[in-house]
Design a protein that fits this description.
The complex is a heterotrimer of chains A (311), B (138) and C (124). With 311 residues, chain A is of the alpha/beta class. In chain A, 66% of the residues lie in helices and 9% in strands. Chain A has two domains: 5-184, Orthogonal Bundle (Globin-like), CATH 1.10.490; 190-309, STAS domain (Transcription Regulator spoIIAA). Chain B has one domain: Heat Shock Protein 90. The chains are: A alpha/beta (311), B alpha+beta (138), C alpha/beta (124). The A-C interface holds A 214-215, 218-219, 221-222, 225-228, 249, 252-260, 262, 285, 296, 300, 303-304, 307-308, 310 and C 80, 82-84, 86-88, 90-92, 96-97, 102-105, 107-112, 114-115, 120-124.
Chain lengths: 311, 138, 124
């Protein structure tokens, strides 16, 4: 599974007036001198972009290793462009949303490839050094160097902070993927006989798992051409109304595919609880053990096969 | 805070439009990376709601938008019409398929197909149904 | 909107619903099947929906109606090839095609009819 990160980048580069992603930079004074400071920085971005990128990539390679230089140049180029646009377009407020977005994606990607958050932040902070170097060489004598340096610092700090959000997003994605894989591994569907499939469930059956079970079972019926599906709940500790609903849905869905569904493994206490809760499984074929369910399933398949064999 | 892409609109004035709406929503769902079951659910919901708009709402519009909320992406569909409106939304939402006319509006079933479902309707003021399906990683 | 072809094999009729059937075509199919059952005295109707990626409440209703009408005219209808995703969606919608026979393949459908199982073909 791939996240179309580049597609996401492409989408965010397009200026979108409906974006309301807040930048991480704290509110700036709306004074003319600040605008002038931003103009100086914007100037460097547009006229010294290549040199800025060179400087950034060189410093970045120190932090992240020389092999990532190409990636840095490409991603860095996009960030420099977006930053330049943001600064040029700003009259009063500065919308760093698109740039934050790019860095978030960048951060998430690097996290997925194993970088620590300090490395990713280090890469972004390397931009500050590169930017200050370029500013130093382009600003004329009369410029307020402190003000410019401070503004440049603020910008980069804000972006570096934003990269932590990206790191978290990347981590969450890894966790989520692992969760999905765990879910699928724990709900196997097995072909136990000619045209009979079985899903032996173990553990609590929540909505997410129930959904996976249903989809896996139905797919197995389609793939195997199964006539009977067995849902064994011997290993499911509690069956409440919600679980029962999931079971009923699965039974209904297997019937739509022309297969019979047997629910097996209902413990005596479970049966009593279900009756007390008013759960009605009267329309469902049940057996107390998987073995009994299998016996029934085989008989069914044999009867069908005999019929089908006759001319 | 959810961000949205630019909305795409489709008219829902004829029965051909219902088919067109299904096609377009499926295309968008595939583009966004929805798995087959999720695609089927959102397209089926589209079919139900678009038909309602066409048959009961006197025709209207479908607005499709890609949405982003934190790290999750999704598809938002809005069905609007200037028709007679629904007299009792609560009843319509709890009714199965048996309210007058045979199939009713099927809103209770459709609601189960999508992640989020919102409806606004008043007699004489038209109807607006908004549903969102979020991408689940598989 | 090309008409759905209906194939006749002895006393069975086979019709395949196309991938994205519109409401009108579905109704026309229902009419055609009723007419063909009546004309040829067919006893078996196999409705293949394996190409349908979406079966909504309207189509579901048409299918149930086809089954009821044909039964009145002396033919048993079996819906063949409902896809997993469609089955899941129908169940979620609360539509279970009550009383309508279903089968995975045409062979299974014919064998089940031979077995003489009831309309639901349920296990003991």
């Amino acid at each position: 599974m791939t996240t179309p990160a580049h597609a996401m980048i492409a989408r965010r580069i397009v200026p979108d007036t409906e974006h309301d992603v807040r930048s991480q930079v704290p509110e700036q004074d709306r004074s003319n001198s600040d605008l002038g400071v931003r103009a100086s920085i914007a100037d460097v971005l547009s006229h010294r972009g290549e040199q800025l990128l060179d400087g950034w990539v060189a410093r970045g390679a120190v932090v992240a290793g020389a092999s990532s230089a190409d990636d840095l140049r490409r991603d860095g180029g996009a960030v420099v462009d977006a930053l330049g646009r943001a600064l040029n377009g700003a009259d009063q407020s500065l919308d760093l949303g698109p740039v934050s977005g790019l860095l978030s994606d960048f951060s998430a990607r690097r996290t997925r490839s194993g970088d620590r958050p300090s490395q990713t932040a280090g890469l972004i902070l390397a931009l500050r050094e590169a930017l200050l170097t370029e500013l130093d060489s382009t600003l004329d004598e009369g410029a307020d160097r402190m003000a410019v340096a401070r503004e440049a610092g603020r910008l980069v700090d804000g972006l570096a902070l934003g990269s932590f959000d990206g790191f978290l997003a990347g981590r969450e994605e890894v966790i989520s993927q692992q969760g999905e894989q765990l879910l699928e591994l724990s709900t196997p569907v097995v072909r136990v006989w000619d045209r009979v499939v079985a899903a032996p469930l173990v553990g609590t059956l929540d909505s997410a798992r129930a959904q996976v079970v249903m989809e896996s079972l139905l797919q197995a019926i389609a793939d195997d051409g199964a006539l009977v599906a067995i849902l064994d709940i011997t290993g499911v500790p509690t069956v409440d109304t919600l679980v029962a609903q999931h079971l009923l849905k699965t039974v209904a869905a297997t019937r739509l595919m022309g297969a019979d569904c047997i629910v097996s493994g209902i413990a005596p206490q479970t049966a009593q609880t279900m009756v007390q809760l008013g759960i009605d499984l009267s329309e469902v074929t049940t057996r107390s053990s998987l073995a009994d369910a299998l016996v029934l399933a085989i008989a069914r398949v044999q009867a069908h096969t005999e019929r089908a064999a006759r001319p | 805070m959810p961000t949205v892409g630019s909305p795409e609109r489709l008219p829902l004035t004829g029965s051909d439009d219902v088919v067109r709406a299904r096609h377009r929503v499926r295309e968008l769902a595939i583009e966004l990376g929805f798995d087959l079951v999720a695609q089927t659910k959102i397209v089926t919901a589209t079919s139900e709601l678009a038909r309602n708009t066409h048959l009961h709402g006197g025709g209207g519009t479908l607005t499709m938008t890609e949405v982003v909320d934190g790290s999750r992406r999704g598809l938002r569909l809005e069905f609007t019409d200037e028709g007679p409106g629904i007299e009792n939304v609560q009843t319509a939402l709890t009714d199965g398929w048996s309210s007058g006319g045979g199939l009713g509006l099927g809103l209770s079933g459709t609601r189960r197909l999508v992640d989020s479902f919102a409806i606004e309707s008043e007699p004489g003021r038209g109807t607006r149904v908004e549903v969102t399906q979020w991408l689940k990683r598989r | 909107m090309t008409a759905v072809p209906v194939v006749r094999m002895q006393d069975a009729l086979i019709a395949a619903m196309q991938e994205d059937i519109d409401d009108q075509s579905a109704l026309e199919l229902a009419d055609r099947l009723a007419a063909e059952v009546s004309t040829h005295g067919a006893r078996i109707v196999l409705l293949d929906v394996s190409a349908a990626q979406v079966v909504d409440s309207f189509i579901s209703r048409v299918i149930v109606d086809i089954a009821r009408v044909c039964r009145l005219l002396g033919a048993e209808v079996t819906v063949v090839g409902i896809r997993p995703a469609v089955a899941i969606t129908l169940v979620e919608l609360g539509l279970s095609l009550e009383g309508v026979r279903t089968a995975l393949t045409i062979d299974d459908a014919l064998a089940a009819l031979e077995e003489g199982a009831g309309a639901d073909g349920r296990l003991a």
